[in-house]
Amino acid sequence: MKKIYLDNNATTSVRAEVLETMLPFFSSEFGNPSSLHWAGRAVSSHIEKARQQVAGLINCSPAEIVFTSCGSEGNNFAIKGTVEALKEKGNHIITTAVEHPAVLTTCRALEKQGVQVTYLAVDEDGLLDLEELEQAITERTILIAVMWGNNETGVLFPIEEIGRIARRHKVRFLSDAVQAVGKVPVDVQQAGVDLLTISGHKIEAPKGVGALYVRKGNPLTPLIHGGHQERNRRGGTHNVPGIVGLGRACELAGGELDDFQKRVAVLRDRLQQGLMAAVPDVKLNGHPQYRLPGTLNISFAYIEGEGLLLHLDMQGIAASSGSACTSGSFGMSHVLEAMGVDPMLGQSSVRFSLGRDTSEADIDYVLQVLPPIVQKLRDMSPFYQNTSGAAL
Amino acid sequence: MYSDKVMDHFSNPRNVGEMEVPDAIGEFGSSHCGDTIKVFLKIEDDIIKDIRFKTFGCAAAIASSSMMTEMVRGKTLQEALDLTNEAVAQALDGLPPEKMHCSCLAADGLHKAINDYLQEKK
What we know:
heterodimer; A: alpha/beta; Aspartate Aminotransferase, domain 1; Aspartate Aminotransferase, domain 2; 2 domains; 7-stranded mixed sheet; 13 helices; globular; disordered C terminus; B: alpha+beta; Sufe protein. Chain: A; 3-stranded antiparallel sheet; 5 helices
């Protein structure tokens, strides 16, 4: 059976060049980079090289990169570390209703400890009202946390404009860029962000490694207390193979960024247009232009996403669904709910996320396989009458 | 995640469709997740002679609907009313705990069709 992986926003495979770079650090180069002796010294320079590679991709100084274990740690560290470090200054956070759970759940946990959080609404395209954002800032605001690109819809927020607002009001700005780094240009100087989250496994580095950019002069209270690693910012022995892999992945992604963006966007558009032409009553979720190049979130009216995903899976196609009737609230994703998507259509949503390896043949296979599955499921749906255009 | 029986009934659901002249129709929607079933019955001498369904929902909801139709075809109305959601889930070799509510759809939709039918006959 063909195997087509269109769930790259969930995770990616480790790229061959990345794995190759990592392998010696499991065996011959096994030292602890914090050790003074030969074994440690042999490794520590590679950690610093990786730091430069990550810094190079987002245009910061290497000293501003803190290696973490994942994107969730980065977001927890950035938010909790800011709240603790700036508790004399204030206790108000501004974020959006569509952030990744790593940000939203952290904010909700902090609310229980007395932190005030404003969750900004989005419009039907998934975009923010920047005036509303600016008006939400008070004297007690210590952090604005707005993601760079949305994991479910791919919607890109105007990070530079938000950065200017944050600067104007002297409020710290965190952007969760887990889905954006390596896929679209991310320049922390141009964007005016103070904190930025990176995850390895979204960009063909392994799982279990990430990085947090912390602008110089923005002290953060550590989340993980321990040894002197990462200039006392993050305790714990370095995940050397992971860090080396992350560095290499960032270097490769940076060199191929222009090509990647163009190529993947063409394939994504081919998929989108093909599905819209072949299947009636579909709806695109997310702004058509301000979007990550490889993400397509689309609803197929009258059917439930899970059934479609399982049928696609049986044909070798891996995609994902924002819906799960375990999540309550009509099984709708919090992102689509915030966008005001009709609950029935929200449940019908499927996310395809393309990667560097996605080919035109992959897309054409999906275009061939998917329409009959939708029809089969529609034929068993009580909401579907065989007259197109009834519900949209 | 799902048993082979669930996947079988989900991939090849039995008795999908509608009826031109049903003796009873029941529509039931879950307030929990929005899943909805529509059940059509052909009834003779208080026996379910034929049954069809349409379901909007996840694989567990579709498989439960299909299994339910198999379990009550040819049964008396009372036997059908005695069918529980748990029995449907058991016949499917179980459902993941978080999906148990999806099986409620099937028996509840069936019971609604039968109760409406009996109410009208009175």
